[in-house]
Amino acid sequence: MTLRFATAAEGALDLHVLEQGAVDAWLSDQPDHVAAWVRASGFEGGIGDTLVIPGPDGGPTAGLAGYGNAAARARVRFTLAAAAPRLQDQTWRIASGLPGQDAEREALGWLLTGYGFSRYRDQTAKTGALVAPEGIDADRVEILAAAEVLTRDLINTPAADMGPEALEEAVWDLARDHDAHVEVIAGQGLLDHNLPMIHAVGRAAKDDPRLIDMTWGDTGPHLVLVGKGVCFDTGGLNLKPGASMGLMKKDMGGAAAVLGLAKAIMALELKLRLRVLIPAVENSVAGNSFRPQDILHSRKGLTVEINNTDAEGRLVLADALALADETAPDLILSMATLTGAARVAVGPDIAPFFATDDALARAFEAAAPGAADPVWRLPFHDPYEPLIEPGIADLDNAPKGGFAGAITAALFLRRFVTETPRYAHFDIYGWQPQAAPGRTKGGIGQGARSILAALPEILDL
Ligand code: BES
Ligand code: MN
Ligand code: ZN
């Protein structure tokens, strides 16, 4: 589906955005019949409040949308998105009241109210159409919306239709749209090309495990995005209990996030060299599953003792990161639904991240509010390094005790990035547990918009 601004400004109705408490002042400049109608309606300008103002013939002539106050807006990600579904069947042009610095974010939120996942049942969202507010980069906002649609659709599609092969197909589709190049190493090829941990995790599934490698652009700084593509995570032989397995179609949320980000980078034609690496596997159960206490050899040469087959994400990412690191790009970013511990730490809304350097971290933090994409830095805490060292191998994939699970997972990944000066890792949730304005229940992008907004500063674009 495509989320776009309305093109014809003629026929669009004026929409006045009013803060809570600003209604009386606005009414003092309005004709008596408008003031009477608004007063009688009880419209107060709260978030989500809307009012259509009729003309003499009873048809709509204009509308009001509440903008709340600063404290109320701080509790929501997108404000006008709460109003848009109540303004359906009309096209609106924002005539007053929307602060310029909020316009791009609010316009994106509005567009996203049009998202519905209709692959299996029509869930077309009913919402108002919006003419792009003045002063915004409308193309950029539409690109951000398209990237988010891709991410959500990929996550929402169940594993039966979004296994490793289908995920590969989705990458080919994206690459075709933007003239990118794709190479795939699958099945036995993973062993031939020294990607043994991707093979070990994925070999028990019906679809062959694979590494999907997409490249685009030929000038500028070199950026590598690595996304966890575990299309379904049963936990492997350390099988997850039912309640924990229930949502695991979303365990390719990191892949979905980096593909959305890649789509935006390519559509915006950023001047950089992009590589996207997705280890795509299903962590499944069969006679050839990898086992607890197996010791895996990794691409980088480090050996890994398996102490829980459910800590599979770091294994597939490790081989992909080692491959990325061999060319020492300017920046490597990994995104993954990697640990339950990250959820316990920050809940579903916030994308925690780890960064090897402070300037990198500050760039993401500075970009997040404007991008409506909250992030929070967690530390690569060196004193915890011993926790990932088991004794009979170089690394332990599942430290005992479970303290600092998001940090120990991140430290594990960092062991595979030694040649690249700057590395950041995002441990995302990829799922909106309850619908909120602009955010349908289900798959959701996290981190990508903040990263995109920070890239010019980080890579000097
Ligand atoms: N995909 C899960 C992590 C996950 C679970 C993310 C729930 C979001 C919601 C990952 O593969 C996993 O199972 N991690 C284990 C690691 C542990 C066994 C060391 C975890 O976090 O419990
Ligand atoms: Mn797992
Ligand atoms: Zn997983």
From TrEMBL:
Cytosol aminopeptidase domain ranges (all copies): 308-315
One Pfam assignment: Peptidase_M17
Molecular function via GO: manganese ion binding; metalloaminopeptidase activity
Keyword set includes Membrane: no
Keywords: Aminopeptidase, Hydrolase, Manganese, Protease
Cellular component GO terms held in the UniProt record: cytoplasm
Gene3D superfamilies: Leucine Aminopeptidase, subunit E, domain 1, Zn peptidases
CDD domains: Peptidase_M17
GO process annotations (BP): proteolysis
Record has Aminoacyl-tRNA synthetase as a keyword: no
Assigned protein family: Belongs to the peptidase M17 family.
PANTHER family: LEUCINE AMINOPEPTIDASE-RELATED (PTHR11963), PEPTIDASE B (PTHR11963:SF20)
Protein name, UniProt field: Leucyl aminopeptidase
Organism: Roseivivax lentus
Phylogenetic classification of the source organism: Bacteria, Pseudomonadati, Pseudomonadota, Alphaproteobacteria, Rhodobacterales
